[in-house]
Amino acid sequence: MIIALISDVHSNWEALQAVWEEVKKADAILCMGDLVGYGASPNEVVEFVRGQMEKRTFLCVRGNHDNAIAFGADWGFNPYAREAVRWHQWVMSIENLEFLRRLPVRQLFTDDAGRSYLLIHGSPRAPLDEYLFPWLPESEFRAVLSYVKQDDLIVGHTHVPMLKLVGDRRVINPGGVGQPRDGDWRAAYAVINTEEEPPDNVEFRRVEYEVGEAARKIIEAGLPRFLAERLFEGI
Q1: Nearest Cα to 176, choosing from 57, 24, 32, 46?
Q2: Per-residue model confidence (pLDDT) at position 75
Q3: Which of 11, 47, 137, 206 could be cross-linked to 39 through a Cys-Cys bond (beta carbons 3.0 to 4.6 Å apart)?
Q4: Does 42 have pLDDT greater than 90?
Q5: Mind giving me the DSSP string for 95-129?
Q6: Peptide bond into 161 cis (omega under 30)
Q7: Helices 94-102 and 42-55, axial angle in degrees (round to 10)
């Protein structure tokens, strides 16, 4: 079984399409949220995901930007993010906003080998908001996993790829599809191959996409130029 992991698309249609070409034959696709925010193609991204969820194993949880746009909960956001939230609320269809409102905060998945996964955008302690950065001490990951009954925890939110092994359990972050923040501008995702033994059956991958087109759309939409420029730097 091939399981594709994606997260933090952030309304970047070009990045999502490039990743999709790589993962469309996977047996299951797990998404850790933030379909929208920052970028200029929210309706295209959400409608595509809605269509895929209707016809295949595609699980998705709600991220903090999904939540902010769906419910107007943008407190604590920086000025760039807040401006993007309000633009999204203006341009998105009612159907797509309703879809975001219905996304669960947590999802469970079990692969064909019987290994179980908990999908959350942030962390079990603060599902929408807590950042689990790879440089946190191991004690922090042990504390987080104490809230989890499943074998593995899969998260997003930081836009930084990560694999943390704590005993025989893992915390996995595939990185950001639409707005990487690890210094590599290419869209990030990960793949789990259940025919191989954990913990070494996770592969982190990158794919180039039409970053110039994604940036152009942001600028033409009147969104902050910084949101376009950061795409070229992976920050």
Answers
A1: 32
A2: 86
A3: 11
A4: yes
A5: HHHHHHHH--SEEEEE-TTS-EEEEESS-SSSTTT
A6: no
A7: 60
* Model pLDDT, residue 64: 98
210: amino acid identity, one letter: E
Distance in Å from the first CA to the final CA of the chain? 33
In terms of C-beta density within 10 A (0-12 exposed, 13-18 middle, 19 or more buried), how is residue 51 classed?
exposed
Is a pLDDT exceeding 90 seen at residue 122? yes
Structure tokens at 12: 């970047």
Q: Would you state the pLDDT for residue 176?
A: 98
Among residues 197, 29, 235, the alpha carbon closest in space to that of 115 is found at: 197
Report pLDDT digits (tens) over 70-109: 999 888 899 999 999 999 999 999 999 999 999 999 999 9
Q: Are 121 and 75 in contact (CB under 8 A)?
A: no
Residue 196 tokens, joined: 């191989």
Domain boundaries, the chain: 2-106+173-233
Amino acid symbol at 118: L
Over its C-alpha atoms, the chain yields an Rg (Å, rounded) of 17
2-106+173-233 CATH: 3.60.21.10
Percent pLDDT > 70 in the chain is 100
Q: How far apart are CA 65 and CA 72, in angstroms?
A: 10
**What are 171's two structure tokens?**
């915390």
Q: 211-220 and 225-233 are packed helices; what angle lies between their axes, rounded to 10 degrees? A: 170
**Other beta carbons less than 10 A from residue 131's beta carbon:** 13
